[in-house]
């Protein structure tokens, strides 16, 4: 435990360190990546090569996930956790340390957890029910078996009869299980009509998805504590035998245990947790018409499965990792459990972006081959909410899973969705993938089937260090201090468990718009209103306290009020706690209605009686049509149906950066004041004064794109701090506020662009510094243009970097600075002025301040633009070159379709519009 305790001590010490500069960069502030080991076919030479590339570019964390191998490379595959594999892990850890990289690893290969040591008895389990109708009053001899031929064959020798129950329809229930011998029921049935229901505990027979060599086998039963414990034993043995250091953290991917709705022992656990026996209510449990009793029993079943998953899997996994000095990082989505409590049961909750969000940012390239982002901010917030309310310092993200099709995603397309994750609370991001690829592998190297390929074999890697620096700067602030969201919002999990169809509900990101549309709209409405929120579960409400005018969760995070969003079902204990908090001084708001009833079937009469007694303490209101505030003990209860009015009634001002300017933001607190991450994820630019919802006296601005910083222009209005903000569409900024103004800081430069600009539309030359296939020579293009239009046979099929050069004759115009506006860049560019490195532009707006390098008279501007690999790969497909050399799923297209890219038209490359120099004058203070 020593390593674990030291790790978390350092995390919390680091989170409180302050500076009037960019915070000190910890490894966790640098971007991380899932490191795909194809076939685990790694070797020391190429591990060193790859790790040096990664470290030099700026990656700070790598999570090893072994998956399927490369065709024809079987002789180099290494079995997972074998002595050779552990030797490679030990070497990797040493080399990673040399390059400033921390090593994590998946607690398995592919996903979900499973492998060859998982016996059929401890594999993922499913319930199979069979029903029979008989007339009693006679001896019954009946075959009790699975009747579906296909399922019967699959389960032969595997499925076991767990219960055979008989029901007379009048409330009488008999357990006939002991009367079944070798599949035959022999029973003297009492008179009357009887329904018999048999429960077979079968197996899903799901195998590990995308398994690596040595990792193939059944998916384990995540609900079975013995199966989980036995699964981790193989890691104990491998690490003990090899004496390899345990990784910093273990990872678990999204819960994709399909159809596993049961486990041996579930009926016993259900009786212990819910207070009645589920098998005595199989007819109601299986009633697909879902009357009230059926829904209540189903809700109890779902709650039981949720608790068992948390207790038997995520909590046990985390305790096991802590025992070895490691932490856990987990994606709870896709599981049937309460997402808040599941995420909170691990060290680092991780959300997932899946698709590309269209923010309508000016100048941002659109691509026809994209998929919409399933993870809007309401979905992303489950992980960060759990981290915030439980006091966990990090929220992670699986970042950029399928933005566009392969070889077509630019850094500029990545930035807006990265910013979306930041404003949702992510502060320890991981790219979805960096495949290990040997240096000698032919291009495009070893690849993973899903985008985005964030690795040295991708042309975007050339300018990726600038993107990595941006992420590092943002996360250095976002890891500093503590969360400072306005409200807690109750997650109405019992409404979901009660109302959703089917048996087991998996809360995956692709279906949340169907499962929780009203809750999603609620969160979006609150955020659009200029507030920020964290979700809270019943369990965390029970441990929340009122202190010094605010609600304080068990993790020590503070909130101004708690909002209950139209929840119909709520345990009496939860409602009683809310009332108690209000009496102590808290503000609790009920929107649209008070909770109407208790959930579940267990002790329903007693629970309803307790619920009614609690409800009697609530302020009486005939209608929620208008917003009403009630003094309640030392606190307040607010009711109403309009979220804006209800939240306004809490006395919490909305942030003008959202309500007035439409900016996305997240706010954190620190010992000296507060800090905001602000992103202009919209079409409109912003230039104006914004009142901040903090009681501080001064502010500094930090540009995470360039590293610039300075004291902001501020003023006080009605006792509140106002800050002047200037943001172009697509830009972002960090605002740090102070209770006491820092000394010795230079002023932030606020610029006014002059109406006059210099168009650099003639005299350009073009030459390639790198091109595959090769393009030699220099081209007089005169006007900036896509290099796909030049007269060369390889121009439309190459991947590379081209240098655009022009001579600038500077006019005699006074200006404090000059902005170089490159317009439409495909896809990123490095700029030099008179031989000086002026910076890298990789996201819209493609602009740089270059005045300090310009001189009177003639100046040389060089712009090295790098394109995407799409044109090159399309040409390879047209030529029939076989680069798809990977096993299992190999390389699928967007939406998991098979096919190639031979039909794709050339994508523009290079400079695609007029380039301008814009004179800027700075405000004189």
How does this structure look, described?
The protein is an alpha+beta fold. The protein contains 21 helices and 48 strands. The strands form 11 sheets. It has an 8-stranded parallel β-barrel, surrounded by 4 helices. The longest helix is centred in the first third of the chain and has 31 residues, at 292-322. The radius of gyration is 30 Å and the shape is globular.
Poorly predicted spans: 1-19
Number of helices: 21
Mean pLDDT: 96
Broad shape: globular
Question: Which structural class do you get from the secondary structure elements?
Answer: alpha+beta
Major sheet summary line: 8 strands, parallel, barrel
Number of strands: 48
Give the CA-CA distance, first to last residue.
55 Å
Helix content: 25-40%
Keywords: Hydrolase, Signal
Signal peptide: 1-19
Organism: Phocaeicola intestinalis
Protein name: Glycosyl hydrolase family 2
Write the layout of secondary structure elements.
Blueprint: H1 2-16, E1 32-38, H2 44-57, E2 61-67, H3 83-98, E3 102-106, E4 114-115, E5 125-135, E6 138-143, H4 149-155, E7 160-167, E8 173-175, E9 180-181, E10 184-189, E11 193-203, E12 218-219, H5 225-242, E13 249-252, H6 266-274, H7 282-285, H8 292-322, E14 327-330, H9 339-344, E15 348-354, H10 377-390, E16 396-401, H11 411-424, E17 428-435, H12 464-478, E18 482-483, E19 487-490, H13 493-499, H14 512-515, H15 517-528, E20 533-536, H16 538-542, E21 545-547, E22 550-552, E23 558-559, E24 561-565, H17 572-584, E25 587-591, H18 604-615, E26 628-632, E27 635-640, H19 643-649, H20 656-659, E28 664-670, E29 673-679, E30 686-691, E31 698-702, E32 709-711, E33 714-717, E34 720-727, E35 732-738, E36 751-753, E37 758-759, E38 764-772, E39 778-782, E40 799-810, E41 817-821, E42 825-826, E43 828-833, E44 836-841, E45 847-849, E46 857-866, H21 870-878, E47 910-911, E48 916-922
Parallel strand pairs: 1-2, 1-17, 2-3, 3-13, 13-14, 14-15, 15-16, 16-17, 19-20, 19-24, 24-25, 25-27
Antiparallel strand pairs: 4-12, 5-11, 6-10, 7-8, 7-11, 9-10, 18-28, 21-22, 22-23, 26-27, 28-29, 29-35, 30-34, 31-32, 31-35, 33-34, 36-48, 37-48, 38-39, 38-40, 40-46, 41-45, 41-48, 42-47, 43-44, 43-46
Helix pairs in contact: 2-3, 5-8, 6-8, 8-13, 10-11, 11-12, 17-18
């Amino acid at each position: 435990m020593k390593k674990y305790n030291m790790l978390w001590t350092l995390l919390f010490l680091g989170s409180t360190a302050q500076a009037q500069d960019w915070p000190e960069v910890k490894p966790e502030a640098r971007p991380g990546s899932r490191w795909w080991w194809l076939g685990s076919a790694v070797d020391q030479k190429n591990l060193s090569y790859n790790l040096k590339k990664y470290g030099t570019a700026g990656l700070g964390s790598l999570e090893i996930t072994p998956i399927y191998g490369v065709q024809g490379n079987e002789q180099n595959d290494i079995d997972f956790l074998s002595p050779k594999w552990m030797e490679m892990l030990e070497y990797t850890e040493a080399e990673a340390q040399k390059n400033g990289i921390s090593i994590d690893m998946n607690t398995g290969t592919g996903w979900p957890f499973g492998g060859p040591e998982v016996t059929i008895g401890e594999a993922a389990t499913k319930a199979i029910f069979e029903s029979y109708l008989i007339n009693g009053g006679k001896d019954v001899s009946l075959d009790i078996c699975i009747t579906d031929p296909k399922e019967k064959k699959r389960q032969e020798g595997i499925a076991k009869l767990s219960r055979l129950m008989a029901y007379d329809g009048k409330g009488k229930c008999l357990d006939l299980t002991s009367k079944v011998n070798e599949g035959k029921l022999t029973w003297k049935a009492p008179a009357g009509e009887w329904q018999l229901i048999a429960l077979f505990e079968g197996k899903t027979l799901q195998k590990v998805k995308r398994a690596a060599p040595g990792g193939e086998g059944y998916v384990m039963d995540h609900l079975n504590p013995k199966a989980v414990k036995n699964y981790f034993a193989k890691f104990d043995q491998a690490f003990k035998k090899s004496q390899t250091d345990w990784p910093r953290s273990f990872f678990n991917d999204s819960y994709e245990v399909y159809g596993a709705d049961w486990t041996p022992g579930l009926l016993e656990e259900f009786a212990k947790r819910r207070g009645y026996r589920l098998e005595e209510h199989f007819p109601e449990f299986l009633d697909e018409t879902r009357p009230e009793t059926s829904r209540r029993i189903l809700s109890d079943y779902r709650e039981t499965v949720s608790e068992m998953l948390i207790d038997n899997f995520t909590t046990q996994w985390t305790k096991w990792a802590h025992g070895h000095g490691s932490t856990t990082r987990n994606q709870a989505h896709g599981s049937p459990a309460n997402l808040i409590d599941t995420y909170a049961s691990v060290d680092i909750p991780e959300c997932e972006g899946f698709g590309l969000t269209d923010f309508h940012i000016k100048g941002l390239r659109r691509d026809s081959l994209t998929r919409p982002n399933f993870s809007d901010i309401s979905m992303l917030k489950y992980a960060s909410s759990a981290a915030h309310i439980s006091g966990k310092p990090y929220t992670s993200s699986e970042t950029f899973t399928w933005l566009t099709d392969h070889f077509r995603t630019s850094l500029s397309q990545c930035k807006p969705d990265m910013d979306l994750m930041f404003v949702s609370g992510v502060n320890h991001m991981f790219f979805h993938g960096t495949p290990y690829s040997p240096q000698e592998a032919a291009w495009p190297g070893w690849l993973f089937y899903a985008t985005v390929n964030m690795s040295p074999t991708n042309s975007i890697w050339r300018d990726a260090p600038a993107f990595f620096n941006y992420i590092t700067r943002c996360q250095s602030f976002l890891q500093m201090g503590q969360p400072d969201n306005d409200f807690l919002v109750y997650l109405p999990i019992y409404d979901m468990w009660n109302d959703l169809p089917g048996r087991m509900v998996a809360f995956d990101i692709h279906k949340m718009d169907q499962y929780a549309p009203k809750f999603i709209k609620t969160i979006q409405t609150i955020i659009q209103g200029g507030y920020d929120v964290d979700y809270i579960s019943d369990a965390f409400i029970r441990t929340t306290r009122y202190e010094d005018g605010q609600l304080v969760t068990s993790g020590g995070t503070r909130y101004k009020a708690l909002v209950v969003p139209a929840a119909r079902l709520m345990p009496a204990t939860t409602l009683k706690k809310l009332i108690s908090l209000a009496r102590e001084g808290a503000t609790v708001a009920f929107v649209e209605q008070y909770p109407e009833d208790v959930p579940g079937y267990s002790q329903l009469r007693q629970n309803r009686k307790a619920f009614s007694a609690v409800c009697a303490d609530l302020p009486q209101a005939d209608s929620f049509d208008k917003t009403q505030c009630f003094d309640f003990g030392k606190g307040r209860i607010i009711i109403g149906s309009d979220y804006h009015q209800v939240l306004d009634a809490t006395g919490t001002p909305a942030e003008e950066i959202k309500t007035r300017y439409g900016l996305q933001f997240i706010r954190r607190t620190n010992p000296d004041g507060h800090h905001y991450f602000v992103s202009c994820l919209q079409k409109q630019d912003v230039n104006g004064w914004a009142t901040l919802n903090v009681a501080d006296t001064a502010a500094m601005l930090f540009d995470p794109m360039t590293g610039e910083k300075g004291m902001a222009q501020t003023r006080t209005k009605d006792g509140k701090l106002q800050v002047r903000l200037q943001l172009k569409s697509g830009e972002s900024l960090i605002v740090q506020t102070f209770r006491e103004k820092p000394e010795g800081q230079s002023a932030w430069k606020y610029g006014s662009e002059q109406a006059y600009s210099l168009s650099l539309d003639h005299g350009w030359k073009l030459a390639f510094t790198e091109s595959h296939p090769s393009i030699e020579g220099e081209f007089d293009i005169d006007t900036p243009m896509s290099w796909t239009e030049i007269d060369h046979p390889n121009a439309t099929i190459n991947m590379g970097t081209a240098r655009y050069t022009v001579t600038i004759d500077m006019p005699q115009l006074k200006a404090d600075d000059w902005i170089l506006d490159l317009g439409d860049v495909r896809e990123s560019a490095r700029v030099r002025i008179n031989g000086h490195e002026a910076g890298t532009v990789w996201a819209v707006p493609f602009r740089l301040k270059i005045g300090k390098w310009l001189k009177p008279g003639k100046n040389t501007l060089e712009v090295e633009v790098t394109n995407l690999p799409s044109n090159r790969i399309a040409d390879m497909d047209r030529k029939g070159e076989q680069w798809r050399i990977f096993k299992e799923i190999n390389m699928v297209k967007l939406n998991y379709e098979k096919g190639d890219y031979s039909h794709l038209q050339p994508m523009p490359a290079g400079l695609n519009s007029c380039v301008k120099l814009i004179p800027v004058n700075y405000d004189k203070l």
